[in-house]
Design a protein that fits this description.
With about 120 residues, the protein is an alpha+beta fold. The chain has three helices and three strands, in the order αβαββα. The chain has one domain: Metal-dependent hydrolases (TIM Barrel, Alpha-Beta Barrel), CATH 3.20.20.140. The mean pLDDT is about 85.
């Protein structure tokens, strides 16, 4: 039976609070139904579901693509006084190509220590 040529590269799971409702087992079952051989998750600002997604996808015969949706500030990350759409943060989808890319995503997700403002 032919496989789907479509690969979903921007998908939020239950770990994207207030934005995603997909649970990983149901998501993978649906991907199997549509004969998808690869699937990415890109939760908002976190990678909490990455390990579960990776292991469950491999069991289901689906190539897991790990990613996240990062926020890019137009100026300093310390300035929180932006007004209007022109000063809002931007979203950027980041996908790991290999283990090195996954490690880089983990590094970006680590909490940072805020410096004291003068």
């Amino acid at each position: 039976m032919p496989r789907s040529e479509f690969v979903h590269l921007h998908l939020h799971t239950q770990f994207s609070l207030l934005d995603g409702a997909c649970r990983i087992p149901e998501l993978l079952a649906l991907a199997q139904t549509y004969k998808m051989d690869s699937l990415a998750i890109t939760d908002h600002g976190n990678m909490f579901g990455a390990i579960d997604f990776y292991t469950e996808a491999q069991k289901a015969g689906i190539k897991p693509i790990i990613g996240c949706e990062a926020y890019i500030a137009p100026g300093s990350r310390l300035v929180k006084t932006g007004v209007g759409i022109d000063e809002a943060s931007y979203h950027l989808i980041l996908l790991a190509k290999d283990e090195s890319g996954y490690q880089n995503l983990q590094t970006l997700q680590r909490p940072y220590r805020l410096e004291r403002l003068p």
